[in-house]
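Course assignment 3, question 2. Fill in each field.
Student: A.L.
Task: Predict the tertiary structure for the chain below.
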Amino acid sequence: MSIDTTSRILAPFLDRFTAEELDAIPYGVVQLDLDGRVLTYNRAEAENADVMPRPLGQHFFFEVAPSANVPEFYGRFLEGVSAQHLDDTFRFTFSCALMPRRVMLRQYFSRRTGSVWLFIGRPDGSAFTWNRAVHSLTALRTAVGYGADAVAGHMS
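Answer field:
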């Protein structure tokens, strides 16, 4: 199932999920308060982004993923929070130390929780893959381009 379909099914119920249930979802799931601080950060995203311990309470756009502090992502977040309506799916490339991380991302404003949910999947919108041999979730990272290819990939 694609990230768009999965997130549309799950979004109305996420605030009722336990931490264990959120950790069982094979997509990254991050809940942000209206200021952009992390309220929830599931296992799939923590392992895929190599962020341990989970950055609860930290500002997502300044401390956790500063490369997301751009109009294409943070700007959309701010506009959605201001309008109290956000349902946006797009491709994004997080700048990481050694290897850019391309993802498909959906931002969803929940009136019920007064927060924004981020759903993060592989670049094609599919789920991350469970690596049962090591009993952990790992992302299948696609080969990424550099230079002009990385910029062109980021713009699409």
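Instructor remarks: The beta strands are 28-32, 38-41, 87-94, 101-110, 115-121, 129-131, 136-138. The first strand starts at residue 28 and ends at 32.
Grade: pending
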